[in-house]
Amino acid sequence: MSPVSTTLDGPVAVITLDRPAARNALNIEVQQGILDALGAIRRDDAVRCVVITGADGVFCAGADITAFDELRAAPVVGDRSASTMFWAELTGFPKPIIAAVEGYALGGGCEIALACDIVIASETARFGVPEVKLGVIPGAGGTQRLIRAVGKSTALMMLFTGDMITAAQALRTGVVADVVGEGEALTAATLIARRIAANSPLAVALAKDAALRSFESSLQQGLAHEQRNFHIALGSADSREGQDAFLGKRRPVFTGR
Ligand code: CO8
């Protein structure tokens, strides 16, 4: 049985990591499974938003600790392994991705959440980067995205101690957008995904592209990129449809063109 499953709920695709005996740890099969799922979703215009979650009350316990030798064997430069391709696809994905986190999001699991656009957590969720306890450090954005998400002091406390933070702390520091009751993260994330899917997919993709550019550029460069995307959106059929629908007091029907 595949350790990753995808279900379609109208325009929302839910990808579930399903390897509960190892707390959904990321072995090659899990990473290949998410990579394949994202590839199919990327090509399917009917899917407008993605939710990633974990089965059995755990998001993901990080890299598979039994498989570190595979990681050691990978070349430092030019690696085309499923792992490298998976992280590249996740972080460069054009459609919005929401992480629905129940239970532990540790190591690579925390890095998946940090790479998603929005994180919704249940009140019992725990986030951590315990890599130093294993003699390694995060290798998929954990040092870079965590510090941007929570600020220097909290990030370094987490990175140096390996201690977890609670959902409440994650909310306070901005790692997560909302905290819901235990067992409700997927439902809450899916509701947000449906609201996103009702908007112009082109405008949402342009907003994602412009907003994430802020991590890579100066303010002036980011503003110039925003202007570029703004004018692309303004010239789209979707922007005319949005305008007509508002003025005609009806629901818009967006096509992504
Ligand atoms: N990898 C492999 N197996 C795991 C992992 C994991 N990350 N996490 C849990 N498991 C397995 C356990 O070994 C156990 O297996 P078994 O039943 O056969 O003994 C089973 O899952 C259940 O685990 P627990 O009994 O520990 O379950 P608990 O609910 O008590 O605890 C925890 C759950 C808190 C998630 C706990 O299992 C834990 O701390 N796991 C490890 C978390 C961790 O350290 N993650 C970071 C991994 S490193 C990383 O992500 C980046 C690595 C970069 C590598 C570079 C290498 C060169």
From TrEMBL:
CDD domains assigned to the protein according to its UniProt record, in alphabetical order: crotonase-like (cd06558)
Record's catalysed reaction(s): a (3S)-3-hydroxyacyl-CoA = a (2E)-enoyl-CoA + H2O; a 4-saturated-(3S)-3-hydroxyacyl-CoA = a (3E)-enoyl-CoA + H2O
Keywords: Fatty acid metabolism, Lipid metabolism, Lyase
GO MF assignments: enoyl-CoA hydratase activity
Record InterPro entries: ClpP/crotonase-like_dom_sf, Enoyl-CoA_hyd/isom_CS, Enoyl-CoA_hydra/iso, Enoyl-CoA_hydra_C
Keyword Lipid metabolism: yes
Transmembrane segments: none
Enzyme Commission number(s) from the entry: 4.2.1.17
GO biological process entries: fatty acid beta-oxidation
Cited function: Could possibly oxidize fatty acids using specific components.
Family of the protein in this entry: Belongs to the enoyl-CoA hydratase/isomerase family.
PANTHER family documented for this protein: ENOYL-COA HYDRATASE, MITOCHONDRIAL, ENOYL-COA HYDRATASE-RELATED
Protein name listed in UniProt: Probable enoyl-CoA hydratase EchA17
Organism: Gordonia asplenii
